[in-house]
Amino acid sequence: MGTEAISPWMTRVIVGGAELDGFEQPTPASSVRLLLPSEGSDLVIPTWAGNEFLLPDGSRPVIRTLTPRRFLPDRRELHLDIVHHDGGALTPWARSALAGEASDGAVSGPGRGYGIPADADSFLLVGDETAVPAICQLLEHIPDVPIQTLVGVRHPEAVVDLHRDVDEQWVHIESGRDLGPEAVARLASRTIDDGLHIWAAGEAAAVQAIRRHLFSDRGVPRDRTTIRGYWKAGR
Question: 198: how many CB neighbours lie within 10 A of its CB?
Answer without folding.
Answer: 21
